Known about the structure:
The chain is of the alpha/beta class and 465 residues long. It contains 14 helices and 19 strands. The longest helix is centred in the first third of the chain and has 22 residues, at 3-24. The structure holds zinc ion.
Amino acid sequence: MSDYEALRQQHVAHAVALTPRLIEQLDWPAERLAAYRTARLRELVRAATGRSPWYRKRLADVDIDRLDETTLAELPVLTKAELMEHFDGIITDRRLSLARLEQHLGAVETGSYLFGRYTAITSGGSTGQRGVFVYDWDSWAVFWLSIVRGVLRVKLADPALAGRPAVLASVAAAHFSHGTAAMARTFAGAHLTGIRLPVTLPTEEIVAGLNDAQPDFLLAYPSVLYILAREALAGRLRIAPRRILAGAEPLLPEIRAAAEQAWDGKVINVWGMSEGGGTAAGCDQGSTHISEDQLIVEPVDLAGRPVAPGERSAKVYLTNLYNLALPLIRYEITDEITVLPDPCPCGSAHRRIADVQGRLDDVFVYPGIRVHPHLFRSELGREAGVIEYQVRQTPAGAAIAVRCTAPVSLDRLRDRVAAALARSGLERPQVIVEAVDRLERLGGPAKLKRFLPLDRVPAPLNTGR
Ligand SMILES: [Zn+2]
């Protein structure tokens, strides 16, 4: 057994040991959750001001013993740009730095823990700006459990699944620098046997892989789920998952309906992100509940004022209570959410949110094949120098604009994207990669439309060079 595998097995055992408590917390009453959050918030701020030079200065005036969710709202907001700029001062282990994490991420295929305990992931996020996040031993297990604990509760209560690990098939990210792929690798074997089908494979290969695996649970991006539901309704995909997990993109009503029709199964929506893990996760009543034992989620308007239940927020301030390695306190996420005012019939006291209705990353349709945006996201996310990007579909491929902070080999990036497109079945793909100083933002200054399918590319086209 390799050193990595031995360490990973210890991590699996740790996650299994944590599971009953994390499942139990799903049933805690609201007062108990609130008291727990306050206690953990104080612990978080104590750790941040104790070990992070940047937070020590920034939160110098905070009276930690009086801090609660009301006074939290007086603390400054942390943006992603600020996080990346002050990363080395924010992180709580002085051996870590952004450069050290980037170096680690560059070799992540081999499987390893940084300093024997850290896992790093990257994210494009909804605005297209690259982020790097790091979790320690304990918080990485909680990250995973916050996403799968609902499914584990089903698994552990099902006599048919009692004697064996359940099979969870993930049709998700192809690269281990991405949260879903990274956690599937770390925790393979913890209650679940993971089957991973990269979303960048051609649809027929994904269908064949799923028919082979006969998963008990299926996890997929909504855009893929939609394609798979149609494959199932056409009779080509023949699986019977007990639960279907959807995440990383908005679960549009027509996608939820198609999946429910195809499998007669319950669709669990997961609002997952690199910054918070399972920030909200679905129950069997079709609601999506915020992980209110692990996070403080403040829905706010554009000016940062709290919005009332029932109203859609413009963004969210997230405080991650469980990751002390990289403290995120009132971290700005540009997702729009609506907290629902009524309680859920399932009885959970965790507040619930409506399915996020924001934009869906569009699938590019070429003659005979469909290409998931993750193909581009995955290749672009591997380039540490690329901080923002925009991908426009062209008739024979794509034109990619990148904003770089460090030298990037545009030719190598172009060749990698072209090779990935060819593997997806696109013949002789034409790819253009161009470095730009700024990206065109459609529909307001905050949101960057990262993927522009052919029918949405605004004229005039600028792809001929
Ligand atoms: Zn519920």
